[in-house]
Design goal:
single chain, 333 residues, mainly alpha, 59% helix
Length: 333
C-alpha cells in the first residue's frame, strides 16, 4: 500500500508477482473486500461492463465495425464467445434482459422468430423446414446441417431438431430425405473425395475444381475440410485433374489498387456489403488477400477506409456516426 498509495487489487498484485498473496486472500480471508472491511477501508464496487444501454450500444458498434459481415445484427451468444465478445454477450444477459429484449430496444430484427417450445411440435417444425427448402433449392432433396442453419440465423430450428426430434438423421428419415452423413473414414480415401468433387462439378456445370467457399455454400463443409486436412488442398486436386490454378503473382499484392479490386471482386462474388474480417477471409480461401491487407496496406481498419474511398462510400467513422445519430434520434426504440 505504501508503494501504490491505495489498497491494491488482485490484478496489481499479480503484475508484481505476488500471486501467493492473492491466493491467500481468497483461501484464508474470504476475499479482498472482506480484508478491506476488517481494515475499515471503503469496499470496492466493480463497475458493470456495458452496464448502461449507451455503453452496450457503443460496444455493439465496435463489434459491427470489426465484423461488418454480421450486417449490424446482434449474433447469438455462441458467435460472441467464439469471436472474442463473451463480455458483451454476458452483459446482454446479465444487465439488459437478454438478446431478444436488447434487439427490441434497439429496433433490430430477431434472429429467433419462434416462441419457446413452438418447434417442439412436429407440424410446426416441418412447416418451417419446408420454407427453408423452398427458399434454398439446393436442399430440396435433403436438409441443411446444424452449422448451416446456425450460420444463416435458424438457431431455433437447429436446436429443436436436436433437443426434441432425435437429431438431423432422424428428421431426414421421417421426411424421406437423403442423409448427408457419409460412411466412417470415406473422406480419408482420395479416390472417394475425387469422385465426390467430380460429381459436384458435373451437377453444378463447373469447369474447374470449386473453391472452399463454394463447397461451404452448398453444405459440403466436411468435404472441404477433408480436402484441406487429408489431401493437400484444392491446389493439389486441381493439379491432379489438370485444371487451371487460380493464381496471382506474389508481388501484385503490394499494389493497393490491385488489392482493392481483388477485395471488391470477392465481396461481389460472395454477397458482402462490407469487407469481412480475417477469420472469414481465411475460411473462404482468401488468405492471400488477408495477408496483403495486414502486411502491405496498414491492417484491416486502414484498408477498409481506403476501400470505402475507392468505392466512393462514406468512411467507416462517418457511417458509424450516422448510425449513432439514428439511435440518438429514437430509431432504436
Amino acid at each position: 500500500m505504501k508503494e501504490t498509495g491505495h489498497f491494491p487489487s488482485a490484478t496489481e498484485l499479480n503484475k508484481r508477482n505476488l500471486k501467493s498473496l492473492v491466493q491467500a486472500a481468497y483461501t484464508y480471508h474470504d476475499g479482498f473486500n472482506n480484508i478491506r472491511k476488517k481494515m475499515g477501508l471503503k469496499l470496492f464496487e466493480q463497475k458493470k461492463e456495458y452496464g448502461t444501454l449507451e455503453e452496450l450500444t457503443l460496444g455493439l458498434k465496435k463489434m459491427w465495425k470489426e465484423h461488418p459481415e454480421v450486417k449490424n445484427q446482434i449474433p447469438n451468444d455462441d458467435w460472441m464467445r467464439k469471436n472474442g465478445y463473451s463480455n458483451l454477450g454476458h452483459s446482454i444477459y446479465r444487465n439488459h434482459g437478454g438478446f431478444r429484449k436488447v434487439r427490441e430496444k434497439l429496433g433490430i430484427a430477431q434472429l429467433n422468430r419462434y416462441a419457446r417450445g413452438e418447434l417442439k411440435d412436429w407440424n410446426n417444425l416441418t412447416k418451417e423446414l419446408k420454407k427453408i427448402t423452398k427458399k434454398y433449392t439446393q436442399y430440396k432433396d435433403t436438409l441443411p446441417s446444424t452449422n448451416w442453419l446456425r450460420e444463416n440465423g435458424y438457431y431455433g430450428i437447429a436446436s429443436s431438431i436436436i433437443k426434441y426430434h432425435g437429431g438431423f438423421s432422424s428428421v431426414r428419415k421421417k421426411l424421406g430425405k437423403s442423409d448427408l452423413r457419409r460412411p466412417n473414414g470415406c473422406l480419408n480415401d482420395f479416390n472417394y473425395v475425387l469422385n465426390s468433387v467430380k460429381e459436384i462439378m458435373d451437377k453444378n456445370s463447373l469447369d474447374n475444381v470449386p473453391s472452399y467457399s463454394f463447397l461451404y455454400s452448398i453444405n459440403e463443409s466436411s468435404l472441404a475440410y477433408a480436402i484441406g486436412k487429408y489431401h493437400g488442398g484444392i491446389r493439389k486436386l486441381r493439379d491432379f485433374l489438370g485444371k487451371d490454378q487460380i493464381q496471382i503473382e506474389c508481388g501484385k499484392w503490394k499494389n493497393l489498387e490491385f488489392t482493392m479490386n481483388q477485395a471488391i471482386d470477392f465481396m461481389k462474388r460472395e454477397g458482402y456489403d462490407h469487407l469481412p474480417g480475417n477469420e472469414i477471409l481465411k475460411k473462404m480461401n482468401m488468405s492471400s488477400l488477408s495477408t496483403a491487407i495486414s502486411k502491405y496496406h496498414g491492417g484491416k481498419e486502414t484498408f477498409r477506409e481506403k476501400l470505402n474511398q475507392f468505392r466512393q462510400r462514406p468512411p467507416q467513422r462517418q457511417q458509424l456516426a450516422s448510425l449513432l445519430e439514428q439511435y440518438a434520434s429514437g430509431g432504436g426504440n
